[in-house]
Design brief:
Length: 551
Amino acid sequence: MTRSFFILPAIVVIGTFSVVHADDAKPDNKNTSWVGKEVIRKRSDIVFGDIGETGRLVNVSKVDAAIFVVKKEEGGRLLIRELGRDGWADKADFVLMEQALTHFSRRIKANRNDKEAWQGRGCYWRQKGEVEKAIRDFDRAIRIDPDATMAYADRGSAYLDKKELNNAMGDFDEAVRLDPRDPRAFTRRGVALLLLGEIDKAINDFDSAIRLDSKLVAHFTSRGGAWLMKQEYEKAIRDIDHAIQLEPKCAETFSFRGYAYSAKEEYDRALRDYDEAIRLDPKCSATFFHRGNVWMMKQEVEKARKDFDQAIWLDPTDLPAYEKRSCAHLILGEMDKAISDMDEAIRLDPKEAEWFNMRGSLRFVKNDFDQAGKDLDQAIQLNPKNAQYYCNRGCVWLRKNELDKATKDFDEAIRLEPECDVAYQGRALVYTAMKEYGRAIKEYDEVIRFKPFEGDCYSLKAWLLATCEEDQYRDGKTAVMLARRSCELEQHYKPSYLNVLAAAYAEVGDFSLAVELQKKVLEDAEYEKECGKEARERLKLYEGKKPYRDH
């Protein structure tokens, strides 16, 4: 659902696929050209490299992936890209994907012991999403040759597709045992270990890969990803720096370093790397998406929206980009556009509960409570174990004054997630609406227990203690203490907190300070626009030396 980006970078290839963006390899109009087309290797021992002065291949490396998009074609050779490196390979070693099934099936029919044909057809099935068929073909290749290292690697990658991590690890272990001098065997296993959460073991494998071959970009980006997962940003950036030195024209690597700088909250450096990645590859939607996230962090929302626009233009199925652009529209006050993005996300992926939750939340903000409730019903139907969805629907019931239904949803949220502070806060609001103030205070105590460093918790309880209509529940001194605590926790001026503090001072009889604070509250243009009428009425009360009572 969400884009996790480069913790497992795009240039780390597990087994079968090597990605080239379509515009990097535009098809030639000649029917005989393979440029821009997908090809699959015929054997597992193919190499690629640079063309030397004599026309022979130099600086050769073994091809790890099985499927490529052809970037160029010259003199019986194909330019392909793998693991952040461009290289030339003999055209005769590949077959077009559109002909691959027929090619490999004919070879198998001619020779049932053609291990390479079974393995090649398995890679074809995996690329088509037919993982079970792929595994069966890899099984056959391994039965024919139990020492076929690449067959284990390819089958392990297929198991990763199925999220059968233990089976994948078994195959990657065997690949390492069969060829302990193959650095990519360690890299493949290291990536699987990352998926298992075994970060230190993964780093050990990446160390081994680097010792065996210190010139391959993927080894350093893989280890950099592991350091990122450990939040050791300097080590991650050092590894990515080294990868960039090895391949200074690799857009993915600059994007990866941009992500690392972003995680380190060095946003300007992140932007510079994303800019360079876009210069090198202006057709990668992921880079625009992640640069948009940085603009959001810098509160440059309009720039973020433009990057999300570009990400979606490049990839109209990019669901995370619709999600982020919807948030940008919301901040920019473009509510209908925000909802429209969620409409599109739901159209693309109608079984994802989060899209219904987000659209329901947007409709709630728009005060369209009936439609918000329907969306949240659907979110809960799709994922009945998400506490947040019940909290959100509980808020809808609360605004519709259906307090019993609201209570049931908040209760269910707490059952699912006993430390769900939002649910306790929602229940406190329900009890306040029911005029059960003692129970409301206890709920706010729970919220503070779970979130002792969040100002909202203290401010809400302070408001009740300062303004409650029933004398027995008011406690001005405690309200002042809580309201001051909320202001201390907020790093920036927040008028709503000062509004509560003014009410608390009015309750203890310090009306001059209450008036001073309330006037300061009204200086905030946004607050004045949204709550100015009520705030001015309270100001008049304080000027008349009267506290405020919330009814």
